[in-house]
Design a protein that fits this description.
globular, 13 strands, 4-stranded antiparallel β-sheet, single chain, 7-stranded mixed β-sheet
């Protein structure tokens, strides 16, 4: 299969293609600015440092963060979530999360249950993946210190009512950590207005940057125990990790070319506007859902047609294995989707698909209507080989 002819519908995993500006920024940084940022005062090291600060500034503008230095860079959302969870939660704490979380939240929490004896409550969603803030409030106990929610499910596309959940957290003096893996660059995010204390985000998905980039916004009143300890280029004479941000959380050499590309990706989004991108993606999901729902044997997951969701359409075909459908779409139609459990067995349990998984098609800001239609047309042909009943 010619890789240039692929119909790419796997943006929930990573976005592709990247804007030309992102590719140019990575290439230029590799060619001219690959010195170690923060570790030298020569001109190239200074330029490398500027790439990182520029990325922080662009992200701060996108997420309405007052101080760019409250953004700690990480290699991906998983690393950012591990920093937030393991750096904040203490023995005896009670944490509330949800039944639609990714394993990047569930596994650190389960680890801490075994390692230091924390308690965890997973609040149930409805069958569409939507969380009611009232259920979170009902789960709060005196030992509750943290609530963790994903802004949008990576399986169901459901959008959490973060503003209302933030109000509940503020009312009870509980901190709120939001997993923005499927919403950063796709849904408007104002950390102050939404009551977000920590925001974990990827660089390589909706922000259109390279893989190996991501980060964590940390409210200035929160001090996390660093996940990594080592060289930062600052306070090098001290045996302890620096207290200054963001150095405190960024031990080791960062992915400078990657973050140069991320800055370019965020600039692209700011120029296009998050609202414009989300509206386009929502229309494409509606096109797919309306036509897929008319195919006998197709079961759609997540919010109903016409309801809010991100650019994810997960489905199953009666009588067919999800992995088999994904293989056929790839090999015979040149359509890239993802099948299986998507690292979120909790969400599959909520949707009733834990035993079989699902096929997930996900659109991005460069997906065309013709590409969305191609998936529908392919499924019409494929479904003819799997009679219903």
């Amino acid at each position: 299969m010619d890789r240039q002819k692929v119909i790419y519908l796997d943006h929930a995993a990573t976005s592709w293609p990247k804007p030309p500006e992102v590719i140019d920024a990575v290439r230029d940084a590799m060619l001219y600015d690959t010195a170690n940022p923060g570790r030298g005062s020569h001109a190239m090291a200074v330029r490398s440092s500027r790439h990182l600060f520029n990325a922080r500034k662009q992200l701060a503008k996108l997420f309405r963060i007052s101080n760019p230095n409250d953004i700690a860079f990480a290699s991906n959302t998983t690393a950012a979530l591990n920093l937030a969870i393991k750096g904040f939660v203490k023995p005896g704490d009670h944490v509330i999360s949800t039944a639609v979380e990714h394993n990047s939240v569930r596994r650190p929490l389960e680890y801490l249950k075994q390692a230091i004896g924390i308690k965890v409550t997973y609040v149930e969603s409805d069958t569409y993946g939507v969380i009611e803030p009232k259920r979170i409030e009902e789960a709060i106990v005196p030992a509750t210190t943290l609530v963790i929610v994903n802004h949008s499910s990576n399986l169901l596309g459901a959008i959490a009512p973060v503003a209302e959940i933030g109000e509940v957290c503020r009312k009870h003096g509980v901190k709120l950590l939001v997993d923005a893996a499927q919403s950063a660059g796709i849904l408007p995010i104002d950390v102050g207005a939404l009551g977000i204390d920590m925001l974990a985000f990827p660089g390589h998905k909706g922000l259109l940057g390279p893989q190996g980039t991501g980060g964590l916004y940390i409210h200035p009143e929160i001090d996390l125990t660093p996940l990594l300890h080592g060289g930062t280029g600052s306070q090098s004479e001290a045996p302890e990790q620096p207290s200054v941000r963001p150095d405190r959380y960024e031990a080791g050499t960062p992915n400078t070319p990657g973050f140069a590309g991320l800055a370019a990706g965020v600039r692209y989004i700011l120029n296009e506007s998050v609202e414009t991108i989300h509206t386009k993606e929502w229309r494409l999901t509606q096109l797919m859902m309306e036509q897929l729902s008319a195919i006998p044997g197709i079961q759609l997951l997540g919010p109903s047609i016409g309801q809010p969701r991100t650019g994810i359409v997960a489905f199953n075909l009666e009588g067919a294995e999800a992995s088999e459908l994904s293989f056929i779409l790839d090999q015979h139609y040149g359509i890239a989707v993802r099948a299986g459990y998507h690292c979120t067995p909790l969400a599959h349990a909520s949707a009733g698909t834990l035993e079989k998984g699902a096929v997930r098609a996900s659109v991005g800001c460069f997906t065309t209507e013709d590409e969305a239609q191609a998936l529908v047309d392919a499924m019409k042909e494929i479904s003819a080989h799997y009679p219903v009943g």
